[in-house]
Design goal:
Length: 291
């Protein structure tokens, strides 16, 4: 599929002076044979600031932190850290025109090598990889290999991988022997959290308070309890952790929270103060939406 682009700006320090690409938009699949995306008619930008100026949101500091975290996650083949940097469902486009959507973090863990094979990881890790910025809210790495969606607003600035043009389809390997399963990821306005579980089902919470990088040790690491609540279409998972006079409750949505969540929220994180006996103190709860 040919994609006419007249607003691509290639950014600093990562590019050749000009580029002609056969990149496909991550939400549209690979181009038809011979399809091309032409570089913008204006000269290539000299720095990342000029690139981001073409977009409606996104900061230099935000992108640099995202790039550092994505490189660290892919270099370590860390599916859990990567899940915090992905916008689900993650779209995978193959050269034969087939498309696959990875719906949630656990599916990404199981299909990690499908989504980020060695060739894709090399594109992200190579400091010479071209970076393109588009008007509105999208960026691309490697002439369309990896697509990044940028969003902002009251819940904070977020850079996330929205799609990957993979070099070829591959058969997923079984991950039944994996020591941990990825249960839930949550990014709020103030923190980023991962919940995984060991083979016995005991959940573990790791939380990084913003603006701390995911490449640093987490601010909080706890084990707790997980359960499914509700029945039928209202069934949802809940994870509870406690430490230092606080209880942290992360949950998916059941049949609806008391407050109407934002459109793209996936769950919520509630923090409650505890008294000396471990009971919840009245009117001390704070709830944040997970994205």
């Amino acid at each position: 599929m040919t994609i006419p682009i007249a607003v691509v700006v290639l950014c600093a320090g990562v590019l050749a002076p000009s580029v002609t690409s056969s990149a496909a938009r991550a939400d549209q699949g690979p181009p038809m044979q011979g399809g091309r995306v032409e570089a913008a008619s204006e000269p290539a930008a000299d720095d990342l600031d000029a690139c981001l100026a073409q977009m409606t949101t996104g900061s230099r500091a935000g992108f640099l932190q995202f790039r550092q975290e994505l490189r660290a996650a892919l270099a370590a083949k860390d599916a859990e850290m990567t899940a915090l940097l992905v916008d689900f469902p993650l779209r995978l486009n193959a050269p034969d025109g087939s498309r696959v959507s990875l719906l949630d973090p656990e599916t990404l863990r199981l299909r990690f090598e499908d989504a980020f094979p060695a060739s894709v990881r090399a594109v992200v890790l190579d400091p010479a990889t071209p970076l393109g910025c588009f008007y509105y809210d999208e960026m691309m790495l490697g002439n369309g290999t990896v697509w990044i969606r940028v969003s902002g607003g009251a819940h904070g600035e977020r850079f996330r991988v929205s799609g990957v043009n993979v070099p070829e389809p591959r058969r997923a390997k079984s991950a039944t022997s994996a020591p941990r399963t990825l249960e839930f990821v949550c990014e709020t306005a103030t923190s980023r959290s991962i919940v995984d579980a060991d083979r016995d089902g005991t959940p573990r919470l790791r939380t990084w308070r913003k603006p701390k990088s995911l490449t640093a040790p987490p601010d909080l690491q706890l084990t707790g309890e997980g359960a499914s609540e509700g029945t039928g279409p209202c069934r949802h998972d809940v994870w509870r952790f406690a430490a230092e006079g606080r209880r942290y409750v992360l949950s998916e949505f059941g049949c609806g929270p008391e407050r109407e969540p934002p459109r793209d929220a996936v769950g919520q994180l509630e923090t409650v103060m505890l008294d000396e006996e471990g009971k919840e103190r009245d009117d001390t709860g704070q709830t944040e939406w997970c994205f």
